[in-house]
Every structure is written in C-alpha cells, then in structure tokens.
Amino acid sequence: MESRSDYWGQTDEKINTLVSNVEKVVVGKRREIELSLIAILSGGHVLLEDVPGVGKTMMVRAIAKSLGAEFKRIQFTPDLLPSDVTGVSVYNQKSMEFQFRPGPVMANIVLADEINRTSPKTQAALLEALEEGSVTTDGETRELDQPFFVMATQNPIEYGGTYPLPEAQLDRFLFKFRIGYPTKQEELDVLTRVEKQHPIDTLTEVLTLEELLHMKDQVKTVVVGENVKQYIVNVINATRQHHSIALGASPRASIALMKAGQAYAYIQGREYVIPDDIKFLAPFTLQHRIMLNSDAKLSNTTNERVISDILTQVHIPVGNERAQ
C-alpha cells in the first residue's frame, strides 16, 4: 500500500512537471506560475495588474493546455452585457422552447481580460461565479464545472474610461500580483523560442483534470497548526489597526490566507503549513483587500509597503506546525 509520504513525493514531481511545462511558454516567471497554481488548488482566483505584452494571456493559456482544461477568454468592453458573460436562453422555433446557450464563463479556466473596462453591472455578473461556482440566468442556477479558475487582468496605466473594481469584488480574488518585465537574458530566450514557432502551439497536457481535482481534495488535508492560525489572525488584525489603513482586511481574507497556505505547503511537498508560508503569501493575498487613508495616499505610501511594514512588526510564532 502506498504511504502518505510516497504520495506526497509523487505529487511534488507532478507539480514540478506542470510548472516546467508552463515555463516553456512563460520564461522566468516560476513564482507567478506557482501562485496561479496555488490559486487553482485552493479554489481561488487571480487578479493581474500589469502592462500589455508581458505574457498574461500566454500564461493562463499555457496552464489550461497543460491541464487539458477548457479555456475561454472574455474581452471586457464598455458595451459588454451580463448575458454575454453568463449565457442566454434563445427560443428554438423547431422545438418551440427556450434553449440555454452557455456563456464563456462556463469553462474550466477563464481569462477575464481588462475587467475594469466594463460596467459595474457586468462586473457583478462574475461575482456569483467567483464566490459560489455557479451562475444564475432566467431564475435558474447552474453549477459550473470543476475545476473553475478565473484570471482577470487590468491595465494599471490607462485609467481613462475604466470602472475601478469595488471592494466587494476585489475581495473575491485570492491573489493580486504582477508578472513584470523579463530580464535581458529572459527576453533573448523568448525571442529564440518564438523565432520559428510559438511554444504554446506544441504544448501538451501533463496533468489531467481528474488528477488536479484529486490534488484539490488532498490540499484540504494539509495541517494548519494553532500557532499558524494565530499568526494569520494577528496579521489580519494588524491591518485593522495600522495607522495608514482606513479599511482593514475582512475575515474572508483570513480564510483565503489559510487556504492559500495549505496549497503552498502542498506544492512544496509538505503535509503542514509553517508561518513562513503565510508570510510569503500575505502580500499577494492582502494588498488588494485594504484601503489606505487619505494621509497615506498623500504621502505616496503604497498598499505593498504597508503590508510589508505589518509583516515586519507581527511576531512570527515558533512551535509545532504539525499539531492539529
């Protein structure tokens, strides 16, 4: 019979194979690929805020192809309607009844491109899907296939004609991060790889959806000790008391940080979460869940800097992370 440690070793190998496969397309962004995988394994979603052309679309497409998952892209525009996202019922004259045509959100992996360019009403059409894993159209609730993962993007430069995401919707995203520009050497590697054929065209499936769903179940078994839970609560509570923050992180942020910690420990081949896991993930989990006060904004303080300040102030516990 296969032992638990043997299974964890095989999982670690599968995770590395998946990440390496995506790296054939996205050069030098292993951390960002792993964060995306952590979000998928913990049932969360990602908000990417970055300039055009750095590989956001290629990364999510490469993840989808590596998993053999159904991929759909939604290009958000000012005239996009909620039904364009969730789907619509169309009357069939032959059968004389309405038939539901699924929208692009009903896929395993969805790229919501430039989500801040559409109206709040259409943005809200994603809320139920992000939080509940279902969509409601014509009074009927339809469950989304699992796994379900949304990677939304927004351009941090061009704010003209955009609709900033409200706090309620930002809170639905597990992580917010940037891909960033490649180094000179990485950019040279990109040119070499796409010179004759884009590597995305030859990318193959290396992990099945069934294996991924099994991994998601295993992530839930990763132990979170009481000292780690207390550290999470202390960090979240510090966001509510910091002098630069007008609105601190919600209890949903505590849950998100814990679940992300379980997934991160899992891809590291560990059966338990350690405080350093939480410290590493906290900036990506919390920066979009806080609101700075007017004094902090006037002094050009950033959300990232405030979270970093909190993490240096909150005591990191020591103890038995394996304890239930």
From TrEMBL:
Q: Which GO terms describe its molecular function?
A: ATP binding; ATP hydrolysis activity
| Highest taxon, organism lineage | Bacteria
All residue ranges annotated as the ATPase AAA-3 domain in the record? 45-175
Q: Per the record's keyword annotation, is Nucleotide-binding included, yes or no? A: yes
Give the ChlI/MoxR AAA lid domain ranges.
Answer: 238-310
Keywords (alphabetical) are: ATP-binding, Nucleotide-binding
The UniProt entry, under SUPFAM superfamilies, shows:
P-loop containing nucleoside triphosphate hydrolases
Please indicate if the UniProt record lists Hydrolase as a keyword: no
Q: What is the similarity comment for this entry?
A: Belongs to the MoxR family.
For this entry, the protein name equals MoxR family ATPase
Q: What is the lineage of its organism?
A: Bacteria, Bacillati, Bacillota, Bacilli, Bacillales
